[in-house]
Every structure is written in C-alpha cells, then in structure tokens.
Write a structure and sequence with these properties.
Elements lengths: L8 H10 L2 H42 L5 H10 L4 H13 L11 H5 L1 H16 L3 H33 L4 H65 L1
Helix pairs in contact: 1-8, 2-7, 2-8, 3-4, 4-6, 4-8, 6-8, 7-8
C-alpha cells in the first residue's frame, strides 16, 4: 500500500461529494433502498419474534387444557399468535352465542375446513407483507450499483481523453466513483437478501405449523360436537 494512503469514511464522503450529479442520484436511490430495507427488517423481526413467543405460550396452554372456553379466553390474550387467530376463527365459525349449549354445531363443524384454510392463507399473506420490497431490493440494487460503476468508468475514460494522459491522478476520481457505486449496491442488496431468506423460511415453518394445528383443531371441534350428534341420534 502506498505511503500516506488512507481509506476511511471521510475519503468516501469526499468521493461522493465530488462525484457527478448522476452518480449522486444513483447513490441516493441506493441509500433509499437501504434505509427502507433496514426499517422493514427491524419491523418484521419484531413481528416474527412476538408471534413466535405468543404461539409458544398458546401451545403450552392448550396442551394442558380440555375446556374449550378456557382455550378461547387464552387465544384472545395471545393476539400476536397465528395459531390463536386460527382457533378464534374456528370458534367463531362453529359456535354462536346462546346456541347448542357447551357444544358446537355439527353442521358448522363440517364446513370448518374451508374456513380454516382461508384463514391460513390470510395469515401467510399477512406474514409476507413488505417482503416483496426486500426481494426487489436484493434483485435490483446490484444492477443500480453496476449502472453507477459503468458511469464512473465512463467518467474516467472521458478524463483521460480531456487530459491526454492515463496517469493514476487522471483515472482515480472516476474509478473511485465506480467502486463506491458498486459497494453501495452490495451494501443495499446483501442485507435485504439475507433477511428475505430468513423471513421466508420462518413463514414456511409457520405455514407448516398452522397446517398441523388445523388438523388438531378440526378434531377438537368434532369431539366437542359429538355429544350433540349423539343426543340427536
């Protein structure tokens, strides 16, 4: 490394401030992508963490209970749990206030599967909210950075043509712009791609969990409705 050469934040800022307006526009766009992506990452992380904690608590509760009224009260407390939301949707579907005493309506139990599947799709769609922006950032940002890279190299060659020399002093500003644009594109894209894959995997796990829980939910409501069917028989 040449003597006296230093590369730090102040040098990067100097390159940015001295770059052409179109390079500044590219960097501003990448900064916008990065800021919004990080905001989504922190928001989704918080949401998934709360959902995971609430779901764990709800499952621990229902695994030791048989009273469906108690399960309902606990589900209403676990507002962040996707499984609790499924339970409440099934409960609202099967039960009506003042009808059938303690038991569910068998006719409604038979139509419950379609309602639960619809609720699962709604929960998945809610969990996928804003993830499309992370995917877009991960796909687009490197190309936006590459566009800035090409512009920086073009500026370097133009400077060579104006000064009729290919010295380091001539090409360094343009190459510096190109490298900063490349780094900015990667800085915006890499966290977005990593977070998108992590969140997508979490959604897949949650989807499998909801599918398995829906089967248990169907069995639960069918068992609750069985005495009603027996009486009618």
């Amino acid at each position: 490394m040449p003597e006296g050469f230093h590369w730090g934040g102040s040098q990067i800022l100097e390159v940015v401030l001295s770059s052409s307006w179109i390079i500044k526009l590219v960097l501003l766009l990448l900064l916008l992508f990065s800021v919004v992506s990080w905001a989504i990452i922190f928001y989704k992380y918080r949401i998934f963490k709360k959902e995971k904690r609430a779901t764990r608590h709800f499952l621990q509760f229902v695994s030791h209970r048989e009273d469906i009224a108690e399960m309902k009260r606990e589900a209403e407390r676990c507002v962040d749990s996707s499984l609790a939301s499924l339970f409440l949707e099934g409960y609202r579907r099967v039960y009506r206030r003042g009808e059938h005493g303690q038991n569910g309506d068998p006719a409604r139990v038979r139509g419950l599967e379609r309602s639960i599947k619809s609720s699962i799709q709604e929960e998945i769609a809610h969990q996928e909210e804003y993830l499309s922006f992370l995917a877009t950032t991960g796909n687009v940002s490197p190309f936006v950075g590459l566009f800035g890279t090409v512009l920086g190299i073009i500026n370097a060659f133009q400077e060579i043509g104006r000064q009729q020399t290919a010295s380091i002093a001539t090409v360094a500003p343009g190459l510096a712009e190109a490298l900063v644009a490349t780094a900015a594109g990667l800085f915006a894209a890499i966290p977005a791609v990593i977070a998108y894959n992590i969140f997508l995997n979490r959604i897949r796990v949650s989807s499998s969990q909801m599918e398995a829980f829906s089967l248990e939910l169907m069995e639960l409501f069918e068992e609750q409705a069985q005495p009603e069917e027996t009486v009618r028989a």
